Amino acid sequence: MAPRSALPLLRALAPYLDLRLEIATLAGRAIAMDRAENWDRTIEAYHCLTENIADESSSPEAHIEEQYRAGIGDEFMAPARFTNVGVEPHDALLFFNFRADRMRQLVKLFTKKSPHTVQSRIRVPPDLFLASMTNYDNSFGEVRVLFPKKPVKNNLGEWVSASGLRQLRLAETEKYAHVTYFLNGGREIKYAGEERLLIPSLGLKNYAEKPIMSLPEVTNVLLSALQRRHFNFIAVNIANGDMVGHSGDLPAAIEAAKHVDTALAKIIPAAEAHEYAVGITADHGNIEYIELTLHNRTYN
Fold first, then answer.
1. Measured between alpha carbons, how far is 146 from 248 in angstroms, rounded to an integer?
2. Under 8 Å CB-to-CB from 141, ≥6 apart: which residues?
3. 64 touches 10 (CB < 8 A)
4. Residue 28, CA distances (Å) to 60, 78, 102, 124, 236 in order
5. Per-residue pLDDT tens over the stretch 115-140
6. Does domain 6-145 fall into CATH 3.40.50.300?
7. What is the CATH class of 156-289?
8. Rounded CA gap, 273 and 267, in Å?
9. Where are the domains of the chain?
10. Environment class of residue 41 by beta-carbon count within 10 Å: exposed (0-12), middle (13-18) or buried (19+)?
11. What per-residue confidence (pLDDT) applies to 294?
């Protein structure tokens, strides 16, 4: 979706709203669906959902327009509540999002499974009924899963392990799940012979502020692993194109692409020098489709 899709989508939804159905809250996914353990963001979204405090001077449409005027797109939109009633005891919550990596932190707050220093900062209403469309984490036993997933058999990681080979998964925090959980077909547990290295992300709301991200650290760790020749297979995620592409910021996107080129210019020769075959594929940020218009945008 383009960075300013919320308003037309809201207007398309309007005819289906009646007196019994209303939009209670809005929040950008960088806040409500943080996946890099920036718990302050998750707590901000949680409080918006659970506290009985509303901005009565605003409406969903007015809030979106206000955010757009401030130069804030959908992903980074500040949480806002438009009703006086939040989540209460005995309520039922159905989580629709199918992205496990984007939902775990928020659901951990409702299931009291976040770190103690985080959980102590919130209040969880008692006797909630929690359900989700798909399984986010096997530890969420109290969350009813409507559509349990089928196990992905003989995926790449499983095949490498079954062949007695060693493998490395490497990424910065923002994309760690992609080279572990997702690449393993939704499996959390490592395969035999699989090692994982996590490089901390910078924790920015908008990576257009620093398009290089943690790529130098990822590159250095990868070059060291290549030199060791300990692993038969290495999967690494370079996050810049996707994360900066989502911002719709063309100058930042160009800078991010340059950083990726610089990294690949080091990685590919090193891999080939140590007799690795190199395969490069792309994620869905579509950084190459950013258009220079009145409102820079990216399509996914």
1. 35
2. none
3. yes
4. 13, 6, 12, 22, 27
5. 999 999 999 999 999 999 999 998 99
6. no
7. alpha beta
8. 10
9. 6-145, 156-289
10. buried
11. 35
